[in-house]
Amino acid sequence: MSDSTANGLVLAADGTPLKRSLSRSMRRQKMRAFMLVAPLLIFVLLTFIYPIGVMLSRSVQNDIVPETLPETVRVLGAWDSSSGDLPNEVVYAAFMRDMSVAIKAKKHTRLGSRLNYEKTGFSSMFRQSGRKMKKLDPVVDAPFKDKLIKIHKGWGDIETWKTLQTYSGLYTSGYFLNSVDARMTPEGMAWQPEDKQILLKLFGRTLVMSLIITGSCILLGYPIAWLLSNVSPRSANLLLILVLLPFWTSLLVRTSAWKVMLQQNGVINEVLVWIGLVPDGERLILINNQFGTIVAMTHILLPFMILPMYSVMQTIPPVYLRAAKSMGATNWTAFWRVYFPQSIPGIGAGSILVFILSIGYYITPEIVGGTKGVFISNRIAYHISSSLNWGLAAALGTILLIVVLALYWAYDRIVGIDNVKLG
Amino acid sequence: MKLTKTLLATTALTVAAGMVSADGHMSSEMTIVSWGGAYSASQKGAYHDPYAAANGVTIINDDSSAEAVAKLRAMSEAGNITWDVVDVVAADAMRLCDEGLALEIDPDTMLADAPDGTKASEDFGDLLVSECFIPQIVYSTTFGYRTDLVGSTAPTSVCAVFDTETYPGKRSLEKRPINNMEWALLCDGVAKDAVYDVLATEEGQQQALDKLATIKDDVIWWSAGADTPQLLADGEVIMGSTYNGRLFAAIEEQKQPIGMLWDAQVFDLDGWIIPAGLSPERQARALDYIMFATDTQRLADQAQYISYGPARKSSAPLVGKHKTLGIDMAQHMPTDPNNAKNTFLYNYEFWADYRDDIDAKFQTWLAK
């Protein structure tokens, strides 16, 4: 069908060089494939990637300050905060003009709650000052310095203006610093006081406990997956239903059931006291601590470990084990040298699933974790729904995402992502 | 010909009525957000059903009050507010007002006068703690104790919580600093008037945490209002804090051996807000509903279902008997003089400022 020309180019039937013709048809094929996935891709981009990106970008946004107080931010830039003097009348007059606009638009209280994250007291200062500053005219009533200090003594505090100056940019690293127990001060970065250092500890705890949960899922899941793949299909189906049954039950129900089981007057303690293993006065504390979280989450996440393991083990031909034994391997050697290495992709897939799920778990630690069994996600939830500090929540979420990606990358380097199989 | 016209006209009217009610200015469907459970049931009985019957409005209930502030903020940013009336605690109403997410209310024009002609602003009085907040009930966070587990002398003071010698056993407290810090200072000898001044200082916060540390090993920390009644019923704790209505239900409806310790109960308010930025028809409907649901009789009616005190002074004399149990409700109200001998009013301004700061310290202390 093709001809070679004098200069060595291979031509297609229509006379164009084969290479070009081939790449054209390949491109058409690629386009067709792309068009097929396009609806899903656009859907994911619009409903998943874009909102998450917007949310995460809040971790650096600080435009509320320069947008609400544009003039003040500009003139405050010239003020030397280390001089020890309050800003001059120019700053106060600019602040008064900005505020009277903000008060009309009812934006000043919003700014107050934003700045309250950085310095306690700003929330009420803006709210109270707003009520009184409404009555002042930004032109007629000048000068303002003394009037404002009389309205709220906070305007006479040099720290107030230092905070405003520090947080006057469009973007801030403050949220990220906060999420690693540090903060931005007028003098630069500083650690939080010791009695407020909690987040790094929670990150560490989340990672360690997620690893423990993943480990106990492997230990409990492996024998079950082995059993599932080595019994008759009929029994395997029945067992599989037993594995999936809790999977179909509501998460809250399962967690609450653990509460009934583990509490001090719960099923386990009652049985232990009844058979005399534990004296009545010294019932075991099994819940509202790390133990409770580990037990409940291992149970809840176990199916995510068993299913990938099972689907990988199913593909390992049983003849390999028999062959190994026929050549003189003991049961253990046959398992450890022949069977186990082939089941590693299943363990890998299950571990990644369980670990990533548990790192972001929120509801189970909240219910059974007490004070020492809660995760970083509980703090994220607090900042999203209670304190409304979405910037900090976004920074915490970004860090969590980066940690997961880094671990995934490390896993790829050490074990190899090709070694992960879901079936 | 004439018949067709009439038919067409009526059809058009019916269609229109599907969107706006007979007076043409209000939507015929509204979404009311509340807390769910017995509380929503009390609102349904006292407000929703009579209002829907009188006005032909469809009321959709959404039990999202616990996340109302975050969800309203998200809705407002997305430019699509799907809620018409939202039930929130006063502190949340204040934050929604600060964020510009709630409509400002003029009590005298937007709320009903008392039957004797007293203006709403006077009838609600101090309870109008925010420009956007329409008070509905007074509830309290207080302690319940197991009558059979506390020994021969039942506790009468809130400081029994810190007295593990006389009352050994676990207690349940809420997993947040609010209320706990105040009780700790109160039981550490700080005068009631000085509590918030002390709590505003670093030393005062440490003092409160130190006092709480004396019972830290004996505390189960709760995060849902239903936890303490459950823990008390299971005998997991001998005393614990929760909302007084929850304790009422456990004592009177479920007949649990639980007693009320009203001492140093912390009053708080729950009420309505209307989201800012509704369309005129929906806003008119929401305001019409609020005018109806917060009048003197309706607020008193709610107390037939649940033991929370009506927010209007004029409603108090109208509080009657429980709808199904038939018991006199007045004595179960947190505001009843016998129960309110020693009370505390939640300090909104203080906690709006100090909430994040003290919460960080409290959580760090908890994790230690």
Description:
The complex is a heterodimer of chains A (423) and B (368). Chain A starts with a strand and ends in a 9-residue tail after the last helix. Chain A has helices spanning 18-57, 64-68, 70-76, 89-104, 108-116, 122-133, 145-151, 158-166, 174-179, 199-230, 233-248, 251-262, 267-274, 290-313, 319-326, 331-359, 363-368, 376-385, 390-414, and strands at residues 3-4, 10-11, 182-185, 188-191. In chain A, helix 10 (199-230) packs parallel to helix 14 (290-313) and helix 12 (251-262) packs across helix 14. Chain A has a two-stranded antiparallel ribbon. A two-stranded antiparallel sheet of chain A has the order 3-4. In chain A, a hairpin with a 2-residue loop joins strand 3 (182-185) and strand 4. With 423 residues, chain A is mainly α. Chain A folds into three domains: 3-57, no CATH class; 64-172, no CATH class; 201-419, MetI-like (MetI-like fold, Orthogonal Bundle), CATH 1.10.3720. Chain A is 66% helix and 3% strand. With 368 residues, chain B is α/β, with parallel strands linked by helices. Chain B has two domains: 17-138 and 270-327, D-Maltodextrin-Binding Protein, domain 2 (3-Layer(aba) Sandwich), CATH 3.40.190.10; 139-268 and 332-367, D-Maltodextrin-Binding Protein, domain 2 (3-Layer(aba) Sandwich). Chain B contains 14 helices and ten strands. In chain B, strands 1, 2, 3, 4, 5, 6, 7, 8, 9 and 10 form a ten-stranded mixed beta sheet that branches. In chain B, helix 2 (37-55) links the parallel strand 1 (29-33) and strand 2 (58-62). In chain B, helix 2 runs antiparallel to helix 13 (296-302) and helix 7 (180-187) crosses helix 9. The N and C termini of chain B lie far apart (84 Å). Mean pLDDT of chain B is 90; it is low at 6-22. Chain A binds chain B through residues 106-107, 109-110, 112-113, 116-117, 120-124, 127, 192, 195-198, 201-202, 263-265, 288, 366, 370-372, 374, 379, 382, 384-389, and chain B through 66-67, 69-70, 73, 95, 97-100, 170, 175, 206, 220-221, 223, 234-236, 349, 352-357, 359-361, 363-367.
